[in-house]
Amino acid sequence: MTFVVTEACIKCKYTDCVEVCPVDCFHEGPNFLVIDPEECIDCTLCEPECPVEAIYSEEDLPEGQEQFLELNAELSKNWPVINEMKEAPPDAKEWEGVSKKLEHLER
């Protein structure tokens, strides 16, 4: 099983989760983070660290977020690993709670 970063992370990209990951399974894109399902050890440490509640167990994905399981797997192959916390984007607060952000995902 793996954990999955969902739509709530797009344009927010808080990195609190990457600091606690013991296996460096997070990868960073321009405005989104993903989890490599091959590296994730299902430790559950990242989920409570996310301030926008964007991380879910693949078994508990909210309705309408199922495509993010495949998206995390795809993008983690191309994006670099991130394992240290960084500053959030300057406009991250403005994007918190906004729905239907998939169109804003930068690859």
List keywords for this structure.
globular; two-stranded antiparallel ribbon; two-stranded antiparallel sheet; 107 residues; alpha+beta; Alpha-Beta Plaits; single chain
Strands, helices and their partners?
Elements: E1 3-5, H1 16-20, E2 26-28, E3 33-35, E4 55-57, H2 67-76, H3 92-95
Antiparallel strand pairs: 1-4, 2-3
Question: Overview of this structure, please?
Answer:
The chain is α+β, with helices and mostly antiparallel strands and 107 residues long. The protein has one domain: Alpha-Beta Plaits (2-Layer Sandwich). It contains three helices and four strands. The chain has a two-stranded antiparallel ribbon with strand order 1-4. The chain has a two-stranded antiparallel sheet with strand order 2-3. A hairpin with a 4-residue loop joins strand 2 and strand 3. The longest helix is centred in the C-terminal third of the chain and has 10 residues. The radius of gyration is 12 Å and the shape is globular. The model has no long low-confidence stretch (mean pLDDT 97).
Describe, in short, the structure shown.
The protein has helices at residues 16-20, 67-76, 92-95, and strands at residues 3-5, 26-28, 33-35, 55-57. The protein is of the alpha+beta class and 107 residues long.
